[in-house]
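Re: that backbone. Tokens:
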């Protein structure tokens, strides 16, 4: 889809725009914070929030897609379609490289029995020898850290950071943030820490679904650590965010441990029920 010869996309809030029409649907979050006094899911407040968040980020020096037009009545906005790979694409390409794709049958078998999930893959990756990041990933992580430092120091969080919302512009490799439908303004260090932690979790979850989860998690971990390193050197408010990030990580680890324990209990209970049913069937057959 083009506008005056320029590639564009149309985002639609609550209208269900599909890929065949060149439109993307965005759901609104935090309805009480987006300027709609009714607090409902009406399009005017939602599209207004998305565009305002993008323009605010742009004023802070963050690269975002250009907004060519926004209609608060229909809830549609025409935006620049930024050409270039996404961070998730770079991670997938790094894992799929010929020299990285080879693996032994033992490794493949091990992947089959390992528990799924971001936490399990991250733990396995920590025990695996790290391969150096490809130059393009290293550069992207550095730029992303600087970008997030600008955004957070300016009092705004993205709130939907993942491989799909970070685009590396084609002609210069600059980081462009997309997907501002959940963004909001805040000066609270905990909100900024949660924004960073969400990126880490998203990258590891994407790694868990990769064909080579151990290698993908290794790259994802290195990317996030590079992001943090760049963020630390660029942010004037790093100390408070760092302290809260450690807190968020501890909370996440406890929650994950509880979920794993619950999963083990469910599996044990299901096994006991299956064994009980099997014994009951054997008893019926014996009496008949």
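Recovered sequence:
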């Amino acid at each position: 889809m083009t506008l005056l010869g320029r590639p564009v996309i149309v985002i639609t809030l609550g209208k269900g725009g599909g890929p065949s029409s060149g439109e993307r649907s965005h759901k609104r979050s935090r309805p009480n914070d987006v300027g709609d006094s009714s607090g409902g899911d009406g399009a005017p407040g939602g599209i207004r929030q998305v565009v305002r968040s993008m323009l605010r980020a742009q004023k802070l020096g963050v690269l975002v897609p250009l907004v060519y037009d926004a209609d608060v009545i229909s809830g549609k906005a025409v935006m620049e379609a930024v050409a270039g790979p996404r961070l998730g694409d770079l991670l997938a390409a790094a894992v799929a490289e010929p020299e990285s794709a080879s693996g032994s049958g033992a490794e493949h078998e091990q992947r089959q029995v390992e528990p799924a999930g971001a936490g399990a893959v991250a733990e396995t990756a920590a025990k695996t020898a790290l391969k150096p990041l490809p130059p393009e990933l290293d550069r992207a992580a550095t730029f992303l850290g600087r970008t997030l430092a600008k955004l957070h120091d300016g009092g705004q969080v993205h709130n939907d950071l993942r491989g799909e919302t970070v685009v590396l512009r084609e002609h210069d490799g600059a980081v462009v943030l997309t997907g501002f439908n959940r963004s909001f303004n805040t000066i609270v260090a905990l909100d900024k820490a949660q924004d960073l932690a969400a990126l880490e979790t998203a990258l590891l979850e994407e790694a868990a679904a990769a064909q080579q989860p151990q290698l993908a998690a290794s790259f994802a971990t290195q990317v996030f650590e590079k992001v943090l390193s760049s963020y630390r050197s660029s942010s004037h408010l790093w100390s408070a965010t760092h302290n809260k990030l450690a807190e968020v990580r501890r909370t996440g680890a406890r929650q994950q441990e509880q979920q794993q324990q619950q999963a083990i209990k469910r599996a044990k209970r299901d096994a006991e029920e299956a064994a009980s049913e099997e014994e009951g069937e054997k008893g019926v057959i014996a009496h008949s």
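The beta strands are 2-3, 6-13, 23-26, 67-71, 76-80, 156-157, 166-168, 175-177, 184-185. The radius of gyration is 23 Å.
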